Structures are given as C-alpha cells and as structure tokens.
Amino acid sequence: xxxxxxxxxxxxxxxxxxGSLEPELLFALAERNKIALPWTDVEALRSAxxxxxxxxxxxxxxxxxxxxxxxxxxxxxTWAYLLRCKAQNVIHTEPFFDPQTHTDRGIPFEVxxxxxxxxxxxxxxxxxxxxxxxxxxxxxxxEEQAFVTLDQARPFRDAFIAxxxxxxxxxxxxxxxxxxFDKARSEGYLTVAHAGEEGPPEYIWQALDLLKIxxxxxxxxxxxxxxxxxxxxxxxIPLTVCPLSNTKLCVFDDMRQHNILEMLERGxxxxxxxxxxxxxxxxxxxxxxxxxxxxxxxxxxxxxxxQNSLDARLA
Length: 315
Ligand code: ADE
Ligand code: ZN
Prior knowledge:
Elements: H1 3-7, E1 10-12, H2 23-32, H3 42-46, H4 54-64, H5 71-87, E2 90-93, E3 96-97, H6 99-103, H7 109-127, E4 130-131, E5 133-138, H8 143-153, E6 160-166, H9 178-186, E7 190-195, H10 201-209, E8 215-218, H11 226-234, E9 239-241, H12 243-248, H13 260-265, E10 270-272, H14 277-280, H15 284-295, H16 299-311
Parallel strand pairs: 1-2, 2-4, 3-5, 5-6, 6-7, 7-8, 8-9, 9-10
Residues 14, 16, 166, 194, 217, 275 line the site of zinc ion.
C-alpha cells in the first residue's frame, strides 16, 4: 500500500460486516463453535473465491456467515474490521449488517446487534473511529419478511442510522420494498439501497423516487442513462462505489474499464469502498491502490474521493 494513500483520512460507507470475515477467522470460529466446514483449510477456501457474478459470490458469502453464532463471534468479526480501519486511516465507518442472514438460522436478533454494537462503541472509545450502523434487508426475501425484521429492530432503534437493501439485485427491484421503506422512514430511519450494480438504471430511479434514498450503493450503471446522470450530479447524490468488488464480480471485465474516475470528472459525488473485503482482495486502502495502479488516479483525484467519503456521511 502507498503511504500517501494510507495517510489520507477517509470514511467507509459501503462495507458488509459479514463480508469482512477473513478465512482465518472463519476457520477459528468454526472450530470454536464445532462446525464442520466443506473446505480442508484456509487456502482451499481462498481458492474458492472466484466468481462470475453477484449470485455466485452471495452463495459462498451466506455459507461463510454460518460460522457466526454468538455475541462474541459478532464482536470479534466487527473488531477485526475496525483494526483494519485503524491501520488504513479510515476514521469513520457506516457498515451494513444483514440480520436476516442470522435470524433465519435461529440466531436471535439481539445476539447479532449486541455483539456488533459493543465492538463499534469500543472502536469509538479505543481507536477513535466514529460510526453509524445500517440494517440491510435481503431483497431476495419477501416484503413480509422485511416487515418482520423491522419489527425486531424496534427495541434497538437507537443502534441504527439507516436501513439498506442488498443481496440478489436482478428480479428484485426497489419497488418491492417501497412500503417497508415508507414505514422505516416514518420511524426516523434514513435510507440507502444497492442499485445499479448488476441491475439497470431503472432500479436506481426507483431507489431514488420510491425508497427516497440518501446514497446509492454501487450505482455504476447510472452512466448508461444521461438523464439519471444529470440528476445525480445536480442533486449531488453520493455513490458508494466498490472497485475491487466490481471487477471480482465481473461488473467490469478489468479495472482499466472501471468508470469511477470518469464519473468523478463529470461531477458525480463518488466514494471508494470495499464492499466485502475478505472476499474481493482488499480493504479501502487496496481499493484506492488499485485505482492508482490500474486507472491512473492522480493525487488530487484521490484527495477528492477521500473528501467525498467524509462529506457523504450520514452519521
Ligand atoms: N451483499 C454483500 N455484498 C453485496 C453486494 N456487492 N451486492 C449485493 N448484496 C451484497
Ligand atoms: Zn454491497
């Protein structure tokens, strides 16, 4: 990693805590919880990290999350991520977690939230990293199941700054969750949503108009729709872009094809994020380094991207 990139103060606004589960911790938690794994060792697991699309990744990501069982597990997961933040000068983070990935396996909602929340408060106190936690609904599940999750979150309302929407995008448009998001906003949540990662610009329009989102997670396909681009620029709606994720999931064939700097130069408020760093080959720092190495990012562009991340905070 380049020292000058590392030294830039940054915020991370698109990070799935479950996606920060490194293979070493995954194996350690499996042993602690006496769970048999289908991989012989860490290297065998790492070699399974080759994906042709979002769904292939998600299948492995949900399988990996199965080792997370206790409050201590969720604490350890979150703490390990915060140590990475500290090492890369990420001074603020707004991570997602997917409660349904865990409650559907019989893990109580409070076990998940308490473990994450304790690590985040310790991170603020001991590492000086501020935060806002985002509860994300799984879009491949039903509207009704999202409403159940929103109910489960109510006793912990103060633990969250926003609700989000993730998982399999194609075939699950934002419109499916309009009523859930209406209800969440009536309870004071801000809203964000994954849109335009694999899905069409129409999904970004819906996320803006129906879900009233503050930020677009990914949003790289906005560039296909000029009217949408104008709106995003005029209203300075932030995009939480994840370059390594986009190349690992074949949204772009190659980092040299990535459109983040083109968007930046056109006046879009783009930010750099890691999405699922344990699976995609790096944290925020490695994402910045990839833009420098493969896309010719200049120092002033790097500074602007880092400043955008600080400006686009919700907490
Ligand atoms: N969940 C974890 N990572 C994701 C991504 N990149 N897109 C949609 N859902 C996700
Ligand atoms: Zn994501």
